[in-house]
Give the backbone structure.
Amino acid sequence: MSSLIPAVIVPAFIPSPSQGVWHVAGLPIRAYALCILAGIFAGYWLTRRRWVARGGSPTVLSDVMFWAIPFGLVGARIYHVITDAELYFGEGRHPIDALKIWHGGLGIWGAVGFGCLGAYLACRRAGVPFLGFLDAVAPGVALAQIFGRFGNYFNQELFGRPTTRPWGLEIDPAHRPDGFADFATFHPTFLYEAIWNVGVVALVILVGRRFTLGHGRAFFLYVAAYCAGRVWIENMRIDTVNHFLGLRLNVWTSIILFVLAVVALIISARTKPGQEDLSSGPAAGQPTPIVSAGAASGTDAASAESATGTATAAGATLVAESTEPESTEPEAELDSTGGTGPDAATSPSAAAATDAEAIVVENADPASDIPAAGGERTSTEAVKDTNTTAPAVPGDGARD
């Protein structure tokens, strides 16, 4: 019975891809570029979920990523060219090769550093908390690195020392470095780093659910966790790089960044507990409220309102006083019989004044006996005393 079951041959190594470039309608489609693009989309997807979960606007996030991604790609290439300048400059080298990004060569530290610079500029323009953005994007960067490392697999680059383990990576003779032509399988450091980054993504997310990671702490945790794995993975690689004090340059970079990230994580936890509010303001797509100086406090607002009311009342009083009629003609003198002098009898102004006094007499309150200012009696009282022949007008009689 067992002889009928076909034997399954399991290779004792991981085979390398037969090709990394496909031509479609005359255009080269490179696996390395596809892996980078897949990483960008995956990282953006995870970042968007975390950003929206904290109340941020997807549109605002897209605007920030529009700056961060191009800066990151350019920075990744710049870092690689600077740290491996001997591959592009010098005798027998072609500087134009530094622009051929499709041949591989993107430094993660340049991508993170320049990407942060682009994000900072965008956040500053939009008024968005920069550290809040870093916390949201932290696991997304690690996720993007997972996809990006498979681009190294298709290019057959950045592998480790020779090994006979079952998971050893087969490398074609054309891609083996000098001195290793007799070895066929090597440590798949691209796979080690991809698996390590899966743990970094899980670590940042799970710790964020257990503790409040704000003000850059999620990002600092990502940097420290990634650097811890990069140190031992980097020491396994055999590609030609610059060394400093017996260690590869990227190992020193990882050590320094690990220390800085741990220190920043501790300082942030002690000085700025909690998280930034992304559910309101520019991060949520809302305009920044403008508060006037007079409304800075409740007391100032109440004082301003009281002052406004007082000014309004005073204005009303002034208006009322300004509407009272004032006589511009001199008053006619009354004689002892209640009449006027010879000149006043023929004066139109005197006649108008007499009519006005008659109206005052009609509207006056008979019971009122309040003297005018200065102890003198008013003109109404004078009229009442001198004109004794006028009939009394009851206070509640008919009026015109």
